[in-house]
Amino acid sequence: MSNKKAIAMLLLALMMLIAACGSGKNNAQDSSSSSAGSSPSGSSATSSAPAETIELRMTWWGSDARHEKTLKVIELFEQKNPGIKITPEYSGFDGYFDKLNTQIAAGNAPDLIQMGGNIREYIDKNALLDLSPYVGNVLNLEDFSEGLLKKATVDNKFYGVTLGVSTFGLLYNATMFEKAGVPLPSENWTYEDFKNAAVTISRKLGPGHYGTYDLSSGNNTSGLSTFLLSNGKELYRDGDRRFDRQDMIDWFTLWDDMRKAGAVTPPDVMVANPPGEIDKSLIVQGKVAIQAAAASQIYGFQELTQDKLGLLVFPVGSKGSGHVTPDPGQYMTGYAKTEHPEAVAKFINFMVNDPDAALILGNDRGVPPSGKIRDLLAAQSTPTDKVLYDFVSTVSRIASDVDYQQFPLDNELLKLYQVTGEKIAFGAQSIDAAVDEFMTEIDKLIVKAKAQ
Amino acid sequence: MVARFPVKSFLFHVLVLGFGLAMLYPVLWLISASFKPTTEIFTTSSLWPANITFEHYVNGWSGLRNVQFGRFFFNSFMLCVFAVIGTIISSSLAAFAFARIKFPLRGLFFALMLGTIMLPGHVTLIPQYIIFHEVNWVDTFYPLLVPKFVGDAFYIFLIVQFIRGIPRELDESAKIDGCGWFMLYARIIMPLALPALMTTAIFTFLATWDDFFSQLIYLSDIKKLTVPLGLRLFLDSSGSSNWGAVFAMSVLSIIPSLVIFFLGQKYFTQGIATTGLKG
Amino acid sequence: MQKYKTYAAGYLFLLPWLLGFALLYMGPIFASLYLSFTSYDLLTAPKWIGWANYRTMFTDDYRLADSVNVTFQYVFLSVPFRLAFALGLALLLNQGMKLLGLYRTIYYIPSLLGGSVAISVLWRQVFSKEGIFNDALGLLGISGPNWIADPKYAIFSLVGLSVWQFGAVMIIFLAGLKQIPQEFYEAATVDGAGAFRRFWRITLPLLTPVIFFNLTITLIQSFQTFTKAFIISGGNGGPINSTLLYSLYLYIKGFSFLEMGYASAMAWLLLVIVATMTALMFLSSRYWVFYSDGRD
Fold this sequence. Notes:
The structure holds 3 protein chains of 3 kinds. Chain B is mainly α. Helices cover about 65% and strands about 0% of the residues of chain B.
């Protein structure tokens, strides 16, 4: 008797579960996301309406503004291509790659994937679709510069189409410069000039105000890498590092001096208000005048403050500018295991070449790589757009002729750099000791990278 | 009861209330920020907004394109309700077995059960995801609900401890009266363990309401998203975040939890009388 | 025969859990053990490397040593305070006063925020150098450091967050207190027992099963704290790894550096540590935990 009741309760629970998931499943049917359930793609599909709908899944990260724009573009594409249906899966940046990696591990990633600077890793691990068969027919990239295409090309196979061009630079608060009476620096300014400007700003604006964030600490190696390059060295090339201990000592000493002169945010202030987190950045609060940032982030920063913000190049060194040609900030790629590679190529083509799509997307992912699109957008540009365009043009002009190679194991490098910089800034280790540790660890990373 | 303080004393209430409000400061900040215009959220620090705006509530609620934030609330709520039902039933069944029935390997299974909460979830995530993918449950609610119907070690352990606080004599008398195991479970032990069950219910509701990572990994379709995922839609640490909307929706999302908590409170106020037994 | 009926009943009640364990947990648990002996980057198949991960963990990973250190500090600071506040407040609030419901709710609200994204912003507001906490300390004449950003003190802001959310533990204590039959107190009062004796002889012993639960479970959970450390430090465990809790480091290794094999090895090491500690707790429980069901 008691056992029967137990079974009854279990069955009841099961029934409720099925009822619940029944409705859940209906929702799943509406916007099916199982890539296995759609029609076969057929060999070379012409543009005649296919008998069954092709279903693609697409993922990207961004803020709600970008989500709205991208969704509009998808709708537009579906209207013009009735045989193809795209299911979007979008989120903010946090957790995007965790989820993507999990999906790839299970063989379940979406057909269209937005990638960032880490695209190389995914190419090397064979996670992305080779788009070369489609370039020139479904995918039109005539208007894209060679350099941009090369970035996503490995062994003559092409994997990612640039969505927006960006570059690193120094974001600055023009209003603070004005208040302190410091003139805006020129393209050719040196670190000496940088120091003077920063010190003046700190002094003139009083306690709690600083000329610059600490570029020798934090989650961003753009300061270091432009410093090295501007002096004829490099962070990494062809399997090895191209700088030595003395370079690192020079870099950290430079910043230690600036810190002692009062021009730089104290380490605890920087940890509490990381420059990389827009809502916490002190530039927005008018307390720090300069920080390193990706140029396309200027929109996010400007939104949060009434002060006027702008973009500066990094100081030059003995060999000129340390900048490299503006990079693709973001790519659109296809999943290696997609069942509809041609549809994937078609959508990517639409996203970067269709004028209506371009007008909707704007500069949200960086400066559009296609010259035609840039011209199209010129008419609707805001002042902030103009700042971004001008900056990217300037950098293109002054950049050194170097073909930038990204350090493999980038995440580990960033963590190492951040902790080293913090140790020095907090006085937990002397510069010599900290650099010794840094060099040991970085060599270990290089060995590790080679082994992969 | 245990009277260790002059309860009615004014000082007592002042201290307790004061400490409580001090603890609430961060929450008050959150509420105030949700009414401030975007450019003032991070630049002003007073609790009372200089300019009050409702835009964040409006924007946040209207969500994105095709989905309103209300949908996220609905999804979260449904998930929580079923999670609670599933957890209470399955966890109490298992707890009853562990606490009251002697059977071989009981100790071993108890240890295994506890063991499941000692292994950090991040390393079982991928294998579990692969299992769910093989049965085509990804992007459905199944991976989030089915585990709730097989017992949760935390609550099993909790309920076991409570059941063990119930004297055996009751069991003996019930058995003498001809009570079977299930009757014992349903009519005697469970009612006496009600505080534990209510605690389980409330905690399960809150944990499910707040659970970000599993919901992130398993849900993709926008219409299925839940509150934590919905909040993250407004955040993009690599670009511009809509903090106003996040704060406004966060404030709103505390409300159901608060309501559930209030409603469940009276079960904490009932004492247990163990005299007498109804057959 | 009766015996076998009992066995069957036991297994029947345990059936949902048994099924779940067999189908949903056993596989992944063994998988993670297997993965700990491999090098696995999520994007390509795992490669067997034997004991290499474990060897590296014990000989060549200074971050791991730091992380273990930080984690133990965190656990041994946060657990006692969390439990103390929770028990203290529960006893205080269990007196049937008028505003009881209100107080209970006020103290519980922090737990409602859980791992909400809003916490990262809130916590900075309160614990930064110019935050309200230092203002309060200032009233006592103490000049507080930057709790969030100073490597010497960042761990305390983490402990603070854990203790701030003691509401959940308090609720469990309250439920436990409610389960103690009124008759015991009435009888004791009739016998002339004062408040302290009633507490010491009735409340405390009868509360030990719940104290044991809270202590054990809080220990197990705090060793695995992840979300708090992630939101407070922005995911990097800083400054200078001072908030790099074990689970956070594990996550970074597995999902950020894509070394899931190593992360799995770390997970199993943690399992061994936590399981040993829990076993010790259970062994000790026979000396101080009083169960009314007459079992040990």
